[in-house]
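Private note to self, pasted from the team thread so I don't lose it. Backbone tokens:
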């Protein structure tokens, strides 16, 4: 079956002059998201890499309003802005909370959970580079098991598994939760456009590589987020209403997790038996996800093809 790609909007709402590191996945994620949302958007950004990337006052590399807020308050601030717009009769502007994994998995989780429980009419997007990169590469609850960070050095690497943030948000029964990767821009844009068309709390989890924090070369930035999907370490899927699971992509052939890990210096210390433990965990989580998707009719019918390509092609 021929594949039908979703056209990515050509408008650029992120300009030059940003302060990101070379190869920054979070910057590419922002660019794609802005293309999907369009100019009638307001972004709320807590303390994170993007607090710096945007540029020093009065400069901003974005062509949409951006409100900087405290580390723990992205969801609550976005909720307040949306409420103010509603009072003014503006029901068209999309309000987005844009935060890293530290401000989502950890410090901002309380406000995010409260907003989700109230089903606030906002989109919350987490660009996940799997550590506190802006302050020196400290571990977060999004950091994978076995990874090096400055607070989990090679002699004492991270000993806890990554928090299941998508499952936590799905358990709030919100309208839409999805994962995305900067290596699959059509899928990312499609999901943001889908979220924009909905109301209520919508959550999108984007894996966004960080060359310094992952101890990887800049040219590998997109490749690594591609491998994260091909190894099934970061599956692409959606959950609607907290119950309806849909797998968006099943690789034609699963790539061994070692291929993904060996491209990152933060995993160089791992031994073969430790890599096997990670592989076993990936396989277990994939099987569990497939079970949920099978129950709710959300397994893609063909491997190596996006489910939206089959539905729209």
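Design output:
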């Amino acid at each position: 079956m021929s594949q039908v790609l979703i056209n990515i909007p050509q408008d650029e709402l992120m300009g030059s002059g940003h302060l990101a590191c070379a190869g920054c996945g979070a910057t590419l994620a922002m660019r794609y998201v802005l293309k999907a949302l369009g100019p009638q958007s307001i972004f709320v950004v807590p303390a994170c890499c993007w607090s710096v990337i945007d540029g020093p006052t009065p400069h901003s590399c974005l062509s949409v309003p951006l409100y900087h807020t405290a580390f723990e308050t992205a969801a609550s601030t976005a909720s307040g802005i949306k409420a103010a717009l509603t009072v003014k009769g503006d029901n068209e502007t999309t309000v987005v909370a844009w935060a890293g994994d530290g401000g989502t998995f950890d410090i901002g989780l309380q406000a995010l959970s409260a907003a989700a429980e109230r089903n606030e009419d906002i989109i919350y997007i987490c660009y996940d580079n799997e550590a506190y990169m802006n302050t020196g590469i400290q571990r977060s609850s999004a950091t994978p098991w076995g990874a090096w960070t400055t607070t989990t050095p090679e002699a004492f690497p991270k000993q806890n598994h990554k928090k299941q943030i998508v499952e936590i948000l799905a358990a709030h029964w919100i309208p839409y939760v999805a994962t995305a990767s900067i290596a699959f821009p059509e899928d990312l844009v499609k999901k943001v456009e889908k979220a924009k068309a909905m109301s209520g709390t919508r959550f999108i989890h984007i894996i966004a590589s960080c060359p310094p924090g992952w101890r990887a070369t800049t040219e590998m930035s997109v490749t690594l987020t591609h491998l994260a999907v091909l190894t099934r370490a970061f599956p692409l899927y959606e959950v609607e209403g907290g119950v309806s699971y849909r797998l968006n992509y099943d690789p034609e052939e699963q790539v061994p997790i070692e291929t993904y890990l060996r491209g990152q210096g933060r995993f160089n210390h791992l031994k073969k038996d430790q890599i096997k433990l990670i592989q076993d965990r990936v396989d277990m989580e994939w099987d569990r996800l497939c079970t949920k998707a099978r129950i709710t009719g959300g397994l893609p019918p063909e491997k190596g093809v996006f489910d939206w390509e089959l539905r729209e092609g």
